[in-house]
Specification:
Jelly Rolls; 3 domains; five-stranded mixed beta sheet; 3 helices; 27 strands; elongated; signal; CUB-like domain-containing protein; CUB-like_dom
């Protein structure tokens, strides 16, 4: 009896084929189970090697995103799976990661590339796995050209969260590369794991990053477009600069003000010729207060302008002779440091 059962098991396993998701299976609301079944772990044969591709479609107006649930039931010491995420990073799983089918979830946005390679070696070890793919509508957000002149380019991702769709996006374009900064604020750790930045558009994706990996570093595109994607609610304040603005300075960063408690900024000339810009934005209302200014250097060449750091913005305060606190009835301004060491605080008008 045991011999008969073993033969049936081996015969059933060997019939497993490397079958990709078919176009007729890719539509809103459909659920695909790989390699079959109902989402439970499925037995793997020996000498199996298959890379399952999950490629949600997209066009200029709409697309689909995929929710992928991977269950790892590998038992063989030499059996493994390799997950290639949408940002190109790979994770290798084996019989020591997620034993017992603990689910790993991934979100794959329209036009992205995601794959799972499943490999077993020559000895049948009763390894198991399961992939569940759920397809959902993903309405593509609008595309905006970056503003020119003295208007600051800023955007709060929370403003496009409508409470109906899990997926939301926004694309920005310009005639050259785009620089992006996440606005620092109180408790400013980016916790949105399922938020992404595309260097490009949905139809032409040059590079893909998780927003959490970009964090507060400057991000500049190789293309002339930048797309932000969010699958989660929450505040993501972003500031953009055109290449012609950013190339003039050694460093740039941004702050998103909050009321009541100021955020303190330390601006410093690290070496001869070092220049920097801080862009301050009140994303929620109008009015910014600068306070507690302390100049540490003997001379100070720094000033505040009423827009982004370009020739269209006007100087509204010289740091060297400023009196504090100073209230600005503005939504934004830039602090340009050409040669000075100083510290100050910024906050929104108190609510």
């Amino acid at each position: 009896m045991l011999l008969i059962l073993l033969l049936l098991t081996i015969t059933g396993c060997s019939a497993l084929n490397c079958v990709q998701i078919q176009p007729a299976q890719i539509y809103n609301g459909n659920i695909v189970y790989i390699p079959g079944g109902n989402g439970c772990l499925q037995l793997l044969p020996a000498n199996y090697n298959c890379t399952y591709q999950i490629l949600p479609p997209v066009n200029y107006n709409t697309g689909l995103y995929a929710k992928v649930i991977l269950k790892n039931g590998l038992r063989g010491a030499n059996d493994f799976m390799v997950v290639t995420d949408v940002d190109g990073k790979t994770t290798t799983m084996n019989n020591r990661t997620g034993i017992g089918g603990f689910p790993f979830e991934y979100l794959v946005f329209p036009g992205a590339r995601f794959s799972i390679q499943v490999t077993t070696k020559s000895v049948l070890m009763n390894s198991m796995f399961s992939i569940t793919v759920e397809y959902h509508n993903a309405p593509i957000g609008p595309t905006s050209q970056l503003k020119t002149g003295s208007e600051m380019n800023y955007f709060e991702m929370a403003t496009v969260r409508d409470g109906r769709n899990v997926f939301s996006s926004r694309t920005f374009t310009d005639t050259d590369s785009i620089y992006m900064y996440v606005g620092r604020k109180s408790g400013g750790v980016i916790t949105c794991w399922d938020c992404f930045v595309i260097d490009g558009t949905f139809m032409n994706q040059t590079r893909v990053f998780r927003l959490a990996s970009v964090d507060y570093q400057v991000f500049n595109t190789k293309s002339h477009a930048l797309t932000i994607i969010a699958f989660e609610d929450g505040s993501i304040p972003l500031v953009f600069n055109r290449y012609s603005e950013a190339q003039q300075y050694t460093a740039m960063f941004a702050y998103a003000t909050t009321p009541n408690l100021p955020e303190y900024v330390d601006m410093k000339t690290f070496f001869s010729g070092f220049t920097e810009v801080l862009e301050v934005v009140n994303f929620n209302s109008t009015g910014i207060i600068m306070q507690d200014l302390v100049i540490k250097s003997d001379t100070c060449n720094a000033y505040v302008v009423d827009g982004p750091p370009n020739n269209s913005s006007k100087i509204i305060m010289n740091i060297s002779n400023a009196t504090m606190p100073k209230s600005f009835d503005l939504k934004y301004f830039s602090v340009i440091n050409l040669d000075c060491d100083f510290v100050f605080g910024v906050k929104s008008y108190d609510e």
